[in-house]
Amino acid sequence: MTTSYPSTSVEAREEVGKSVCVLSYKPLKIDEIIKSVSDDGAGATALFIGTTRNSYQGKVVTRLEYQAYSKLAIKTMRDIIRTVHQSVIRSAHHPAPATVPSIISCAVHHRLGAVPVGEPSIVIAVSSPHRKEAFVACEQIVEEVKQKVQIWKREYYEGEKEEEAEWKANSS
User: What would the pLDDT profile of 143-163 be if each residue is shown by its tens digit?
Assistant: First the structure.
């Protein structure tokens, strides 16, 4: 199966301080993504892995396909990371000097193209001095990516013609 993609759905990468946003047609390497946010000051790393499941609303899913308006999508992902760095505050039970950030690093990797059942389509890793901030930031990133980033998916179902597969906006 050869699939062509629009010229606007291309691989992209943008770094934001110690954080990174990536759009890729290649399989996502979870261990490398985790390592990219590691830091000796991190007491916690929260991880979210979104995978292609094998069913949706009673239908058997064979694969998902993602396309993006990459130039805008990567900027939106960057803005989400910046917002998270600014908005996630240190919990009251762990006050610290202003020089210690509540979030150390974030990595947001989203797959483009065909993603078979069982493979990750999105991986988000967040390192922080404490677990609560890492979890809060990770959840905020996944929800905002799903709501705001210019990525669309197409679901393919067993027994249905490929041309009948519908495009869906990324949503929560």
Answer: 999 999 999 999 999 999 988
Q: Are 27 and 121 in contact (CB under 8 A)?
A: no
In this structure, the number of other CB atoms found within 10 A of the CB of residue 172 comes to: 8
d(CA 130, CA 92): 12
Does the predicted model carry a pTM greater than 0.85?
Answer: yes
Sheet holding 19-24, edge to edge: 12-16, 19-24, 105-111, 120-128, 44-51
167 beta partners? 154
How far, CA to CA in Å, does 94 sit from each of 46, 130, 133, 139, 140?
Answer: 17, 8, 10, 20, 20
Residues 6 or more apart whose CB falls under 8 angstroms from that of 139 comprise 48
Q: How far apart are CA 65 and CA 157, in angstroms?
A: 12
Helices (H), the chain: 30-36, 70-87, 131-148
Which two structure tokens, joined as six digits, stand for 64? Answer: 């998902």
Is the confidence at residue 84, as pLDDT, over 90? yes
